[in-house]
Amino acid sequence: MIATTPYAVTPVWLTNRSTKETVDAELWHSIVDKNLADWEAEWIPDLQRRLKLLNQQKVERRFWPQSRHWDWRDKLREIERRLANLSFAIVAEDMTQAMMTIDLTKRARMPGHEGQHLVYIDFLEAAPWNRNDVAEEPARFGGCGSILINAAIQQSTQEGFKGRIGLHSLPQANSFYANACGMTDLGQDATYENLRYFELDPDSARSFIEKGKGE
Amino acid sequence: MTFDISKAWCRNAGAREDGLDIGAGVIAADPMFTHEAGADESPEASRLALGRFINLMRRDQGLSIEALAEKADIEIGELLSLENNAAHLPDVRTLYQLSEVFGVSQEKLMGLSGLTHANDDDYVEEAVRYAAKSASVEVLNEDEHAILNGLISVLSENAKQK
Lengths: 215, 162
Description:
The complex is a heterodimer. By secondary structure, chain A is of the alpha+beta class. Chain A contains five helices and nine strands; from the N terminus they run ββααββββαβαββα. In chain A, strands 6-1-2-3-4-5-7-9-8 form a nine-stranded mixed β-sheet, sandwiched between helices. In chain A, β3 and β4 (95-103) form a beta hairpin. Chain A starts with 8 loop residues before the first strand and ends with a helix. By secondary structure, chain B is an all-alpha fold. Chain B has a domain at 43-155: lambda repressor-like DNA-binding domains (434 Repressor (Amino-terminal Domain), Orthogonal Bundle), CATH 1.10.260.40. At the A-B interface, β1, β5, β6, α3 and β7 of A face α1 and α5 of B.
């Protein structure tokens, strides 16, 4: 059964992309029923509306957001009894802004780190109104991706994995993981829908965390 | 146990992330990548060709980096990285915008960038060969015009497939 309250809450801040002001938010340590309700009642209708706009603008389907068929309730049901799978959500203005699930059983592939434990990000998605790939409306809040990557790194450190993380990026997000996060691109993965696979080693994980502090 | 994430870090992260999409996980439908398993290869040479192509097209149109970025509605930093850094992975939207401005195939630009891997990738090899012939000078000379025309014909929608 999906929990109704998160295990823990870390205060975080998002950036309102219109005003550039920071907005109080919370990182919830576990996706709970409220997050799934937000996804069903707010994310899905909003995404459908944006897909309709893309269709009206004659944008080819392959440029539509690839995550449009994801079912977060299914994902949560699948992992709820597994100790090696954790989930996180970012909530601001009483609305779920982004969600992530992670897997603690995967191993690193990067040369020099092969076989080492890492935190593998199974799924990561921002609410439709926080994305750039769905119609012309500007994204509302920025920072969700970086905060979730930060959380994955800190979880990795707490698990004794030294900050190592790995993920398969959706095509629209390759630039974020390669350039903004400094992850190493290990190329397309033929066993995983040919998505590009990225890893962050301990040194790069430290740099990612420190970079934000020092600017 | 909670995490330590400061307000300053979040503010900087928000600025760094501006304009970028963040999704990760398996694609549920419409996979864009259709190449055969194990066919992956280093995209550095083709990305150099892509950078060279953009550089030549920009100069041919008499545009500064800033002017082209504005015309294509893309970030200046993204354009600079595209022209000068073969390790830089462009995003899909950037290539879409550039293909619109230059009037060439967005699919082939994505193939050159390494974002997709075409079943028939002869044009990638051909584009790399054309780009390798070009040299960096301030103004396009006749040879460069010829090279640029060759690149345009290779990357246009209706170029013959071998």
